[in-house]
Amino acid sequence: MFYHILKVQQAKMLGDPTIIFQIFIQPIIFTLLFGYLYQSSGKSDAALLAVFIGVAQMTMWQVLLYAGGIIVRHEFNRERTIFYSLLSQTDLFGIWAKRLFFCILLSTPSFVISIVTGITVFQISLGMTDFIYIVIGILLYSAALYAIGLPIVLLLFLTIHGGKIIQTVTYPIFLLSGMIVSVDYFPPFIKGIAYLFPITWSTHWIQDVFIHNRVDWMFLMYTLLISILYGLFARVIYQFIMNKIRVRGEINL
User: Fold this and answer.
1) Which of 159, 162, 187, 240 fits a disulfide with 253 by CB distance 3.0 to 4.6 angstroms?
2) What residue ranges are annotated as transmembrane (predicted)?
3) CA–CA distance from 69 to each of 10, 17, 24, 165 (Å)?
C-alpha cells in the first residue's frame, strides 16, 4: 500500500504541468529577465554567469518544495491511519532519502537550462575551466540542497502541519543562503546564522569563483561537513517522530 502510494505520486510529479513549467519554462524567463537587467547595469560576464546560477538555484529549490508537497497531498491524508501503522512497523528513513534524491534529480535540468540559456543569449565566452567549475557548482549545490532538504522534507512528510513548516522555515533559509542577496551584506549576527546552512557555503563558493575569480576549496570541505551534520540531524528527527508514533499511534507536531 505504502509503496504503491509513493509510485503513484512519483508518476504525478513527472506529469504535473506546474513542475514541467518550473523545470523547463521558468528558468528561461527569469534568466532572460535578470540577464537583461544586470547587463544594462554594466555587469561583467562573470557576474552575469553567477546571476544565471542563482536563478537556477531558485528554480531547483521551488521544484524540490513543490514535488515534496505532491507526495503528501491526498493519499497520505486519506490513509493516515494505515500510513501511521506502516511507519510504526518499518524503518522508512532510506525510502524518504530516495524520494528526496528523486526530487533533486527532477530539479537538476532547470540548472542546466538556465546556464545554457544565459550563455547562448548573452554570448558569454566559457572556457573549459569555467565549465568544470559550473559542474562542481551544480554537484555542490545539489548535495547541499539534499542535506538541508532531508530534515525539512522529513518534517513535511511525517507531520500533519507539514505545509506550515515549509512556509515558515524554508523561505527564510532561501533568503539567508545568499541566492538573492549576498551574505556579505548581512549584519554579523544574521551572517552567522546564514552559515549554519550548507547551501550558503555552496552559494558563496559559486560567487567567489565567478564574481571574485577566487577558488577556495575549503568551502567545499565545509559544505560537505555541514551536509553530513544535517543528515545526522535528519536521522534524529526521524527517530523522534517514530518514537512518538509507536507510543501514541499518531503524531501531531
Assistant:
1) 159
2) 20-38, 50-72, 100-125, 131-157, 169-197, 217-238
3) 11, 14, 19, 11
